[in-house]
Design goal:
Layout (H helix, E strand, L loop, with lengths): L6 H7 L2 H8 L5 E7 L8 E7 L18 H14 L2 E7 L1 H7 L1 H15 L6 E4 L11 E3 L8 H24 L5 H4 L5 H10 L16
Helix pairs in contact: 3-6, 4-5
């Protein structure tokens, strides 16, 4: 039976794209990912992150959806305290309705890149065709599970968006945003039936209610 991969071994494996880039003379790679493309309410949040590979490794990086909330929060603090640079951008529901969720996601990603305090030499992205940036882009299928930089960005985006939705629970009580984070759960649909739309609902995701 194959021995279980240690956290150190996993970190090394998930550094392959970044190491290849550095071996080819590219100084900084920025990982980019998003959270919140599927929910019925709230913003889509994108993050860009340039890890500092001269610092001690952040062990346990992975696709944010595979991690517990407690682990995500711990890694979030490690990332923001040790990363060479990062940026986090949100695009609200009304913009999503205006330009569609894919274009809203790309807008958030492009803005993340432009707001990084350090200019990366390469963008590593989780299989999104991101045009409109002057920096070379490498799209990686399941990138958040195969690149430490993308995994770090996914954690930054997920933790930030979860906090936004938890805060919205106070502004728009009764919808359960702190629990389902805007996703289409049975309880969320029941709340919409009872309360109607809130200002942060995505109308284009709820067309059946507009018929």
């Amino acid at each position: 039976m194959k021995p279980k991969e240690s956290l150190e071994e996993k970190y090394e494996r998930l550094s392959s794209y970044e190491k290849e880039a550095m071996e080819n003379g590219l100084s900084f790679c920025a990982g980019i990912d998003e959270a919140g493309r599927g929910p019925l309410a709230g913003p889509v949040v994108a993050a860009a992150c340039i890890l500092d590979f001269d610092s001690p490794p952040i062990l346990g990086l992975d696709d944010s959806k595979k991690l517990s909330e407690k682990k995500r929060l711990l890694l979030f603090e490690q990332i923001i305290s040790t990363a060479r640079a990062f940026s986090i951008i949100r695009v609200e529901a009304d913009i999503i309705d205006d330009i569609n969720i894919l274009e809203a996601t790309k807008r958030a990603m492009r803005q993340c890149v432009s707001e990084l305090p350090v200019t990366p030499s390469l963008l590593l992205i989780d299989a999104v065709n991101l045009k409109g940036v002057s920096i070379p882009v490498k799209a990686i299928i399941k990138g958040d599970a195969n690149s430490n930089s993308i995994a770090a960005a996914s954690i930054l985006a997920k933790v930030t968006r979860d906090k936004i939705m938890t805060d919205y629970e106070k502004t728009y009580p009764g919808y359960g945003f702190s629990k389902h984070k805007g996703y289409g759960t049975k309880a969320h649909y029941e709340a919409i039936d009872a309360l109607g739309f809130s200002p942060i609902h995505r109308r284009t995701f709820l067309k059946k209610y507009l018929l």
